[in-house]
Amino acid sequence: MNKHIIFTLFMAVSAFSHAGLVDLDNDALTQVTGQGGADLSWTLSLNHKYANDMSLSSISKMDVNGKVTEAYYSTQCVSDILCRVAVAFNNQKVSDLDKNGNAQQKWLVLKKFQGTLQVDKFQLDGTTILNKDGNQQSAMKLTFLDDKPLKIRNLGFTSASIEVGAAGAEQGYANNKVYGQGGYATNAATFDTGTEKGFMGMNVHGNLQMSGNLKVFSYNCTGAAGSRC
Known about the structure:
There is one protein chain. This protein has 3 helices and 11 strands. It is mostly beta strands. It has a domain at 81-216. Strands 1, 6, 7, 8, 10 and 11 form a 6-stranded antiparallel β-sheet that branches. Strands 4-5-9 form a 3-stranded antiparallel β-sheet, with no helix packed on it. Strand 2 (60-62) and strand 3 (68-71) form a beta hairpin. It is flat. Residues 1-19 form the signal peptide. Keywords: Signal.
């Protein structure tokens, strides 16, 4: 008996809910307006403690006053060779062949590359612009807030180097020569001794204040039937 009553009530509610629906054609849909959006956050962390420890919910620990007491953006490289960014250009090869007769490739290698970037909040909304024909057109809008800066934490690399190596197991990006070892630059200065071969380094730590919005839309969209939007 109870099942029949529940089923009857369900059918009545369904019929009542359906009664409020109205079909809209394309012309009617173009006249519909509304409001909405989303508040988003974004974090990118490479070769840091925060990147390797999934139990951490923030890039740092703070006290009740908002002061950082423990930072989770210290370098956490299991192997120095694994913490590299390497780029090879197709036309950059050396004339000398390796011991196996293979052509050797030049690599631009950034060694011990690491960093954390974080935005606590930015907004995604829809908006309307005037397109190239002077007609209204929908667009996506990203809004960045001045009080929610881009946090740049320990971003950079210890050295950049031009490395040479053949295809296969002896790729140039895996070269691990160190100043003062293995007969390489044995007269290196005390400052360089024990560090990887390279000619410069970079490290950035700070906040980038951003205020404004970015609108994304299709330039060729006219809103007409068949146009690509």
